[in-house]
Design goal:
Elements (H helix, E strand, L loop, with lengths): L18 E10 L2 E11 L4 E5 L6 H9 L6 E6 L2 E2 L10 E4 L11 H11 L4 H14 L15 H13 L5 E5 L7 H18 L2 E6 L2 H7 L2 E6 L2 E6 L1 H6 L4 H6 L4 E9 L2 E4 L2 E4 L8 E6 L14 E11 L4 E6 L3 E5 L10 E5 L6 E2 L3
Parallel strand pairs: 3-8, 3-9, 6-7, 7-8
Antiparallel strand pairs: 1-2, 1-4, 4-5, 9-10, 11-12, 11-14, 12-13, 14-19, 15-16, 15-18, 16-17
The structure holds adenosine-5'-triphosphate.
Amino acid sequence: MSERSGSVSEPGTDEPPGLVVRGARKRFGELVALDDVSLTVEAGEFATLLGPSGCGKTTLLRILAGLELADAGQVSLGGRIIDGLPAHERPVNTVFQSYALFPHLNVFDNVAFGLRSRRRPKDEIDREVAEVLALVRLDGLDRRRIEQLSGGQKQRVALARALVNEPELLLLDEPMSALDAKLRSEVQLELRRVQREHGTTFLLVTHDQDEAMTVSDRIFVMHGGRIEQSGAPSEIYERPRTRFVAEFLGAANLIPVERIGANEVSGRFGRLVLDAPAPWESGTLAIRPERIRIDDPSPVNRLRVTVTDAVFRGDHVDVTVTPGPLRVRVAPAAPIEPGTTLDLSLPPAHLVALHG
Ligand code: ATP
Protein backbone atom coordinates (compact mmCIF):
# COMPACT_ATOMS: atom_id res chain seq x y z
CA MET A 1 0.00 0.00 0.00
CA SER A 2 1.36 3.52 0.50
CA GLU A 3 4.58 2.11 1.99
CA ARG A 4 4.96 -0.14 -0.99
CA SER A 5 3.59 2.17 -3.64
CA GLY A 6 4.65 0.97 -7.03
CA SER A 7 5.40 -2.58 -5.91
CA VAL A 8 3.64 -5.23 -7.94
CA SER A 9 5.13 -8.69 -7.65
CA GLU A 10 5.04 -11.18 -10.48
CA PRO A 11 2.69 -14.18 -10.39
CA GLY A 12 4.31 -17.32 -9.14
CA THR A 13 5.80 -15.80 -5.99
CA ASP A 14 5.22 -17.28 -2.55
CA GLU A 15 1.88 -15.57 -2.03
CA PRO A 16 -1.10 -17.93 -1.74
CA PRO A 17 -3.65 -17.84 -4.59
CA GLY A 18 -6.63 -16.19 -2.84
CA LEU A 19 -6.84 -12.80 -1.17
CA VAL A 20 -4.33 -12.09 1.60
CA VAL A 21 -4.32 -8.90 3.67
CA ARG A 22 -1.42 -8.43 6.08
CA GLY A 23 -1.32 -5.79 8.79
CA ALA A 24 -3.61 -3.21 7.14
CA ARG A 25 -3.80 0.08 9.06
CA LYS A 26 -5.72 3.23 8.27
CA ARG A 27 -6.30 6.43 10.24
CA PHE A 28 -8.45 9.39 9.39
CA GLY A 29 -6.79 12.08 11.54
CA GLU A 30 -7.07 10.80 15.12
CA LEU A 31 -9.63 8.16 14.22
CA VAL A 32 -8.26 4.64 13.77
CA ALA A 33 -10.47 3.07 11.07
CA LEU A 34 -8.34 -0.09 10.60
CA ASP A 35 -6.07 -1.35 13.33
CA ASP A 36 -3.72 -4.07 12.07
CA VAL A 37 -6.18 -6.11 10.01
CA SER A 38 -4.96 -9.39 8.55
CA LEU A 39 -7.14 -11.91 6.74
CA THR A 40 -7.00 -14.69 4.17
CA VAL A 41 -9.80 -15.61 1.78
CA GLU A 42 -9.23 -18.77 -0.23
CA ALA A 43 -9.72 -18.56 -4.00
CA GLY A 44 -13.34 -19.39 -4.83
CA GLU A 45 -14.68 -18.67 -1.35
CA PHE A 46 -17.65 -16.50 -0.44
CA ALA A 47 -16.36 -14.39 2.45
CA THR A 48 -18.10 -11.64 4.39
CA LEU A 49 -16.95 -8.67 6.46
CA LEU A 50 -19.63 -8.41 9.13
CA GLY A 51 -19.86 -5.67 11.73
CA PRO A 52 -21.75 -2.64 13.00
CA SER A 53 -21.67 0.78 11.40
CA GLY A 54 -18.26 2.43 11.69
CA CYS A 55 -16.23 -0.75 12.34
CA GLY A 56 -14.10 -0.24 9.22
CA LYS A 57 -15.70 -2.61 6.69
CA THR A 58 -16.06 -0.07 3.89
CA THR A 59 -12.58 1.32 4.48
CA LEU A 60 -11.10 -2.16 4.03
CA LEU A 61 -13.22 -2.75 0.92
CA ARG A 62 -12.09 0.55 -0.58
CA ILE A 63 -8.44 -0.34 0.08
CA LEU A 64 -8.90 -3.66 -1.71
CA ALA A 65 -10.58 -1.90 -4.65
CA GLY A 66 -7.71 0.60 -4.88
CA LEU A 67 -9.99 3.54 -4.00
CA GLU A 68 -8.24 4.28 -0.71
CA LEU A 69 -4.57 4.06 0.34
CA ALA A 70 -3.75 2.24 3.56
CA ASP A 71 -1.16 3.73 5.93
CA ALA A 72 0.55 0.35 6.25
CA GLY A 73 0.09 -3.27 5.28
CA GLN A 74 0.08 -5.42 2.19
CA VAL A 75 -2.59 -6.92 -0.08
CA SER A 76 -1.99 -9.84 -2.41
CA LEU A 77 -4.45 -11.40 -4.81
CA GLY A 78 -3.97 -14.45 -6.98
CA GLY A 79 -0.37 -14.79 -5.84
CA ARG A 80 0.78 -11.22 -6.50
CA ILE A 81 1.02 -8.09 -4.42
CA ILE A 82 -1.39 -5.49 -5.81
CA ASP A 83 -0.77 -2.48 -3.54
CA GLY A 84 0.87 -0.49 -6.30
CA LEU A 85 -1.86 -1.06 -8.89
CA PRO A 86 -4.38 1.69 -9.59
CA ALA A 87 -8.06 0.71 -9.22
CA HIS A 88 -8.71 0.15 -12.93
CA GLU A 89 -5.75 -2.20 -13.29
CA ARG A 90 -6.74 -4.46 -10.38
CA PRO A 91 -8.46 -7.76 -11.17
CA VAL A 92 -11.20 -6.57 -8.83
CA ASN A 93 -14.76 -5.39 -9.49
CA THR A 94 -17.23 -3.85 -7.07
CA VAL A 95 -21.01 -4.06 -6.82
CA PHE A 96 -22.05 -0.89 -5.01
CA GLN A 97 -24.99 -0.33 -2.71
CA SER A 98 -26.50 2.07 -5.26
CA TYR A 99 -25.72 -0.40 -8.14
CA ALA A 100 -24.28 2.60 -10.10
CA LEU A 101 -25.97 1.45 -13.33
CA PHE A 102 -26.23 3.68 -16.40
CA PRO A 103 -29.94 4.62 -16.37
CA HIS A 104 -30.08 5.64 -20.04
CA LEU A 105 -28.66 2.31 -21.28
CA ASN A 106 -30.54 -0.98 -21.49
CA VAL A 107 -29.58 -4.16 -19.62
CA PHE A 108 -27.39 -5.51 -22.42
CA ASP A 109 -25.49 -2.25 -22.87
CA ASN A 110 -24.92 -1.88 -19.13
CA VAL A 111 -23.43 -5.37 -18.93
CA ALA A 112 -21.44 -5.02 -22.17
CA PHE A 113 -19.91 -1.69 -21.11
CA GLY A 114 -16.68 -3.05 -19.64
CA LEU A 115 -16.06 -5.45 -22.53
CA ARG A 116 -16.67 -2.72 -25.12
CA SER A 117 -14.30 -0.33 -23.41
CA ARG A 118 -11.66 -3.04 -23.70
CA ARG A 119 -12.52 -3.29 -27.42
CA ARG A 120 -13.44 -6.95 -27.39
CA PRO A 121 -14.86 -8.35 -30.68
CA LYS A 122 -18.65 -8.02 -31.04
CA ASP A 123 -19.39 -11.76 -31.29
CA GLU A 124 -17.41 -12.38 -28.07
CA ILE A 125 -19.26 -9.59 -26.31
CA ASP A 126 -22.63 -10.98 -27.46
CA ARG A 127 -21.73 -14.45 -26.24
CA GLU A 128 -20.30 -13.43 -22.88
CA VAL A 129 -23.11 -11.02 -22.05
CA ALA A 130 -25.68 -13.70 -22.95
CA GLU A 131 -23.88 -16.20 -20.70
CA VAL A 132 -23.71 -13.93 -17.70
CA LEU A 133 -27.33 -12.78 -18.13
CA ALA A 134 -28.37 -16.45 -18.11
CA LEU A 135 -26.30 -16.99 -14.96
CA VAL A 136 -28.16 -14.23 -13.11
CA ARG A 137 -31.46 -15.33 -14.73
CA LEU A 138 -32.07 -12.15 -16.69
CA ASP A 139 -32.12 -13.77 -20.15
CA GLY A 140 -34.94 -12.28 -22.18
CA LEU A 141 -34.65 -8.90 -20.46
CA ASP A 142 -31.54 -7.73 -22.29
CA ARG A 143 -33.31 -4.89 -24.18
CA ARG A 144 -35.16 -3.65 -21.09
CA ARG A 145 -34.30 -0.15 -19.87
CA ILE A 146 -32.88 0.10 -16.35
CA GLU A 147 -35.77 2.25 -15.09
CA GLN A 148 -38.21 -0.50 -16.12
CA LEU A 149 -36.60 -3.04 -13.78
CA SER A 150 -37.47 -4.00 -10.21
CA GLY A 151 -34.94 -3.52 -7.40
CA GLY A 152 -34.01 -7.20 -7.46
CA GLN A 153 -33.51 -7.12 -11.24
CA LYS A 154 -31.30 -4.03 -11.02
CA GLN A 155 -29.22 -5.83 -8.43
CA ARG A 156 -28.76 -8.73 -10.87
CA VAL A 157 -27.70 -6.37 -13.68
CA ALA A 158 -25.09 -4.87 -11.34
CA LEU A 159 -23.84 -8.37 -10.51
CA ALA A 160 -23.76 -9.39 -14.19
CA ARG A 161 -21.92 -6.21 -15.14
CA ALA A 162 -19.24 -6.95 -12.55
CA LEU A 163 -18.94 -10.69 -13.32
CA VAL A 164 -18.66 -10.29 -17.09
CA ASN A 165 -15.22 -8.75 -16.55
CA GLU A 166 -14.06 -12.04 -14.98
CA PRO A 167 -12.53 -10.40 -11.89
CA GLU A 168 -10.40 -12.51 -9.54
CA LEU A 169 -12.20 -10.82 -6.66
CA LEU A 170 -15.73 -9.42 -6.56
CA LEU A 171 -16.41 -6.91 -3.80
CA LEU A 172 -20.04 -6.38 -2.76
CA ASP A 173 -20.77 -3.29 -0.68
CA GLU A 174 -24.12 -3.85 1.13
CA PRO A 175 -25.66 -4.76 -2.25
CA MET A 176 -29.00 -5.86 -0.78
CA SER A 177 -29.71 -2.94 1.52
CA ALA A 178 -32.16 -1.31 -0.92
CA LEU A 179 -34.35 -4.43 -1.11
CA ASP A 180 -37.32 -5.26 1.12
CA ALA A 181 -36.96 -8.14 3.59
CA LYS A 182 -38.62 -10.87 1.49
CA LEU A 183 -36.81 -10.00 -1.73
CA ARG A 184 -33.60 -9.69 0.22
CA SER A 185 -33.71 -13.27 1.41
CA GLU A 186 -34.45 -14.50 -2.14
CA VAL A 187 -31.58 -12.45 -3.54
CA GLN A 188 -29.22 -13.81 -0.85
CA LEU A 189 -29.87 -17.37 -2.03
CA GLU A 190 -29.46 -16.27 -5.65
CA LEU A 191 -26.18 -14.58 -4.87
CA ARG A 192 -24.89 -17.73 -3.23
CA ARG A 193 -25.95 -19.84 -6.21
CA VAL A 194 -24.30 -17.45 -8.69
CA GLN A 195 -21.08 -17.45 -6.65
CA ARG A 196 -20.98 -21.26 -6.51
CA GLU A 197 -21.66 -21.60 -10.25
CA HIS A 198 -19.25 -18.87 -11.30
CA GLY A 199 -16.51 -19.75 -8.81
CA THR A 200 -15.17 -16.20 -8.39
CA THR A 201 -13.96 -15.15 -4.92
CA PHE A 202 -16.64 -12.91 -3.37
CA LEU A 203 -16.13 -10.52 -0.46
CA LEU A 204 -19.37 -9.03 0.85
CA VAL A 205 -19.72 -6.18 3.32
CA THR A 206 -22.79 -6.23 5.54
CA HIS A 207 -24.02 -5.35 9.03
CA ASP A 208 -26.77 -7.98 8.77
CA GLN A 209 -25.83 -11.17 10.63
CA ASP A 210 -28.58 -13.29 8.99
CA GLU A 211 -27.36 -12.24 5.58
CA ALA A 212 -23.76 -13.07 6.48
CA MET A 213 -24.73 -16.49 7.79
CA THR A 214 -26.90 -17.27 4.76
CA VAL A 215 -24.37 -16.55 2.04
CA SER A 216 -20.89 -17.04 3.47
CA ASP A 217 -18.33 -19.82 3.58
CA ARG A 218 -16.33 -17.66 5.97
CA ILE A 219 -17.22 -14.63 8.07
CA PHE A 220 -14.84 -12.01 9.45
CA VAL A 221 -16.52 -10.25 12.37
CA MET A 222 -15.17 -6.69 12.63
CA HIS A 223 -15.36 -4.43 15.65
CA GLY A 224 -13.56 -1.12 16.23
CA GLY A 225 -11.24 -1.48 13.24
CA ARG A 226 -10.13 -5.01 14.11
CA ILE A 227 -11.17 -8.52 13.15
CA GLU A 228 -12.60 -9.95 16.33
CA GLN A 229 -13.20 -13.50 15.06
CA SER A 230 -13.27 -15.37 11.76
CA GLY A 231 -14.56 -18.75 10.73
CA ALA A 232 -17.43 -20.66 9.17
CA PRO A 233 -20.90 -19.27 10.07
CA SER A 234 -21.72 -22.23 12.33
CA GLU A 235 -18.39 -21.96 14.15
CA ILE A 236 -18.82 -18.25 14.86
CA TYR A 237 -22.42 -18.70 15.94
CA GLU A 238 -21.86 -21.76 18.12
CA ARG A 239 -18.40 -20.91 19.53
CA PRO A 240 -18.18 -17.11 19.81
CA ARG A 241 -14.86 -16.02 21.31
CA THR A 242 -16.03 -12.73 22.79
CA ARG A 243 -19.09 -11.11 24.28
CA PHE A 244 -19.32 -8.81 21.25
CA VAL A 245 -19.44 -11.72 18.77
CA ALA A 246 -21.89 -13.68 20.96
CA GLU A 247 -24.31 -10.76 21.06
CA PHE A 248 -23.83 -9.51 17.49
CA LEU A 249 -24.69 -12.89 15.97
CA GLY A 250 -28.10 -13.41 17.54
CA ALA A 251 -29.47 -13.74 21.05
CA ALA A 252 -27.11 -14.97 23.77
CA ASN A 253 -27.46 -15.53 27.52
CA LEU A 254 -24.36 -14.23 29.28
CA ILE A 255 -23.59 -15.72 32.69
CA PRO A 256 -20.78 -14.30 34.88
CA VAL A 257 -19.08 -17.10 36.87
CA GLU A 258 -16.04 -18.00 38.99
CA ARG A 259 -13.99 -21.14 38.44
CA ILE A 260 -14.28 -23.59 41.33
CA GLY A 261 -12.75 -26.74 39.81
CA ALA A 262 -11.13 -28.06 36.65
CA ASN A 263 -14.36 -28.14 34.63
CA GLU A 264 -16.64 -26.48 37.14
CA VAL A 265 -17.79 -22.92 37.70
CA SER A 266 -20.17 -21.21 40.06
CA GLY A 267 -22.45 -18.21 39.55
CA ARG A 268 -26.04 -17.09 39.87
CA PHE A 269 -27.30 -20.54 38.82
CA GLY A 270 -25.09 -22.34 41.34
CA ARG A 271 -22.57 -24.92 40.20
CA LEU A 272 -22.26 -25.55 36.44
CA VAL A 273 -20.23 -28.23 34.69
CA LEU A 274 -18.33 -27.38 31.50
CA ASP A 275 -16.96 -29.79 28.91
CA ALA A 276 -13.48 -28.16 29.06
CA PRO A 277 -11.60 -26.17 31.71
CA ALA A 278 -12.48 -22.46 31.79
CA PRO A 279 -9.46 -20.42 30.54
CA TRP A 280 -9.74 -17.89 33.44
CA GLU A 281 -10.45 -17.63 37.18
CA SER A 282 -13.51 -15.50 36.63
CA GLY A 283 -15.27 -14.74 33.37
CA THR A 284 -18.43 -15.05 31.32
CA LEU A 285 -20.22 -18.05 29.82
CA ALA A 286 -22.53 -17.75 26.81
CA ILE A 287 -25.35 -20.05 25.81
CA ARG A 288 -27.83 -19.60 22.94
CA PRO A 289 -31.51 -19.62 23.97
CA GLU A 290 -32.32 -22.53 21.65
CA ARG A 291 -29.57 -24.67 23.21
CA ILE A 292 -31.20 -24.67 26.64
CA ARG A 293 -33.12 -27.93 27.02
CA ILE A 294 -36.62 -27.76 28.30
CA ASP A 295 -38.49 -30.83 27.13
CA ASP A 296 -36.07 -33.50 28.33
CA PRO A 297 -33.60 -31.85 30.70
CA SER A 298 -30.54 -33.86 31.64
CA PRO A 299 -29.54 -34.11 35.32
CA VAL A 300 -26.36 -32.11 34.55
CA ASN A 301 -26.66 -28.32 34.99
CA ARG A 302 -30.32 -28.63 35.83
CA LEU A 303 -32.30 -25.58 36.96
CA ARG A 304 -35.82 -25.17 38.26
CA VAL A 305 -37.20 -21.85 37.01
CA THR A 306 -40.40 -19.85 36.72
CA VAL A 307 -41.61 -18.30 33.47
CA THR A 308 -41.91 -14.50 33.66
CA ASP A 309 -42.71 -13.78 30.02
CA ALA A 310 -43.53 -15.71 26.84
CA VAL A 311 -43.65 -14.08 23.39
CA PHE A 312 -45.18 -16.02 20.50
CA ARG A 313 -43.04 -15.58 17.36
CA GLY A 314 -44.83 -17.89 14.93
CA ASP A 315 -42.26 -20.66 14.51
CA HIS A 316 -41.07 -20.50 18.12
CA VAL A 317 -41.79 -18.90 21.49
CA ASP A 318 -39.25 -16.72 23.32
CA VAL A 319 -39.56 -17.47 27.00
CA THR A 320 -37.91 -15.48 29.79
CA VAL A 321 -37.45 -17.19 33.16
CA THR A 322 -36.35 -16.38 36.67
CA PRO A 323 -33.92 -16.86 38.37
CA GLY A 324 -31.97 -15.30 35.56
CA PRO A 325 -33.12 -13.68 33.54
CA LEU A 326 -32.49 -16.45 31.06
CA ARG A 327 -33.93 -16.46 27.57
CA VAL A 328 -35.09 -19.81 26.28
CA ARG A 329 -36.42 -20.57 22.80
CA VAL A 330 -39.07 -23.29 22.66
CA ALA A 331 -41.31 -24.87 20.03
CA PRO A 332 -44.76 -23.26 19.85
CA ALA A 333 -46.70 -26.51 20.39
CA ALA A 334 -47.36 -26.30 24.13
CA PRO A 335 -48.50 -22.87 25.35
CA ILE A 336 -46.33 -21.63 28.24
CA GLU A 337 -47.96 -19.10 30.56
CA PRO A 338 -46.13 -16.73 32.93
CA GLY A 339 -45.98 -18.37 36.36
CA THR A 340 -45.35 -21.88 34.99
CA THR A 341 -42.52 -23.82 36.67
CA LEU A 342 -40.03 -25.45 34.30
CA ASP A 343 -37.05 -27.76 34.66
CA LEU A 344 -34.26 -26.70 32.31
CA SER A 345 -30.77 -27.93 31.66
CA LEU A 346 -27.76 -26.08 30.24
CA PRO A 347 -25.82 -28.71 28.22
CA PRO A 348 -22.06 -28.45 28.93
CA ALA A 349 -21.28 -28.76 25.21
CA HIS A 350 -23.17 -25.51 24.55
CA LEU A 351 -21.79 -23.45 27.45
CA VAL A 352 -19.05 -21.38 25.83
CA ALA A 353 -16.36 -19.72 27.96
CA LEU A 354 -15.81 -16.26 26.41
CA HIS A 355 -12.34 -14.75 26.17
CA GLY A 356 -13.39 -11.15 26.48
P1 ATP B 1 -20.98 1.65 7.65
O1 ATP B 1 -21.63 0.30 7.74
O2 ATP B 1 -21.71 2.72 8.40
O3 ATP B 1 -20.60 2.06 6.25
P2 ATP B 1 -18.26 0.78 8.10
O4 ATP B 1 -18.07 -0.37 9.01
O5 ATP B 1 -18.20 0.52 6.65
O6 ATP B 1 -19.60 1.53 8.48
P3 ATP B 1 -16.22 2.70 7.58
O7 ATP B 1 -17.03 3.44 6.54
O8 ATP B 1 -15.10 1.88 7.09
O9 ATP B 1 -17.15 1.84 8.51
O10 ATP B 1 -15.66 3.79 8.61
C1 ATP B 1 -14.81 3.46 9.69
C2 ATP B 1 -14.56 4.71 10.50
O11 ATP B 1 -13.79 5.63 9.73
C3 ATP B 1 -15.83 5.45 10.86
O12 ATP B 1 -15.68 5.98 12.15
C4 ATP B 1 -15.92 6.55 9.83
O13 ATP B 1 -16.62 7.67 10.34
C5 ATP B 1 -14.46 6.87 9.56
N1 ATP B 1 -14.23 7.32 8.18
C6 ATP B 1 -14.44 6.62 7.05
N2 ATP B 1 -14.09 7.32 5.96
C7 ATP B 1 -13.63 8.51 6.42
C8 ATP B 1 -13.07 9.69 5.79
N3 ATP B 1 -12.93 9.74 4.46
N4 ATP B 1 -12.71 10.71 6.59
C9 ATP B 1 -12.84 10.64 7.92
N5 ATP B 1 -13.33 9.56 8.59
C10 ATP B 1 -13.71 8.52 7.84
